[in-house]
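Quick question, first post here. What does this chain look like in 3D?
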Amino acid sequence: MKLFTINAGFFKLDGGAMFGVVPKSIWQKTNPADENNLCNWAMRCLLIVDGDRKILIDNGIGYKQDERFLKHYYLHGDDTLEKSLENHGFTKDDITDVFLTHLHFDHCGGSIEKLEDGSLVPAFKNAIYWSNKAHWEWAVHPNDREKASFLKENILPIQESGKLKFIENTDGVAFTDHIKIRFAFGHTDAMMLPQISYKGKTILYMADMLPSIGHIPMPYVMSYDMFPLKTLNEKKKFLTEALENDYILYLEHDPVNECCTLQETEKGIRVKDTFKLADIL
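> Answer (accepted):
Ran it through. Tokens below.
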């Protein structure tokens, strides 16, 4: 098995929304904001080559949205999903599985591309797309608060293509011999966190459970989370487990840090070391 960091670019979101009740005077120490109170965030995906399977976890915002939509998120940087795949010797046609942690637009927007005639088709034409039934139903029948994050053009064409499959809604269910799926319900219903066994190490893909190392302190919960108290309890559970078992946490949105480990301090669980995924491969 081989692992590759796949960078799909950077975007910006409001710092206050990203840190909830935490004051700006505190969170800006780790995630400085610009003059519009916007912080920089990565769209860091992960490619897992496991036997004959090439599994891409999440795929960023994509490029099919109109300028009016994209201007709200300030996409920037030289990285694209295609360029990052190419840097490792792959193309989108090589991908056999697209694993979607959840269906918010910044995690699944690259799943579908728009052709010149306006039709929407899978961007990974040889891949199966993986979600789970509970989250799929949550996304296609969204609540009023969350529906701006669930864009039909990102989601419905996956099912219409016939390439959608569901993972069993059971925590710890096996996806491959080396990957099992953990579930979390605070950010959105039935978000999936791949837990990867690699060379005697455990790597947990944190998705929006832990956007950055700046979110490690327990009260640092995003305003975007549907159920913040549930997130708080889930963070405590997952970070305690990661601390006790020396997990490596893979960070999807941290603009600087790809991976981290944890340590116990007098202030609680905090970051221990940060490093690139390539440093452990």
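The radius of gyration is 18 Å.
The domain at 2-280 is CATH 3.60.15.10 (Metallo-beta-lactamase; Chain A).
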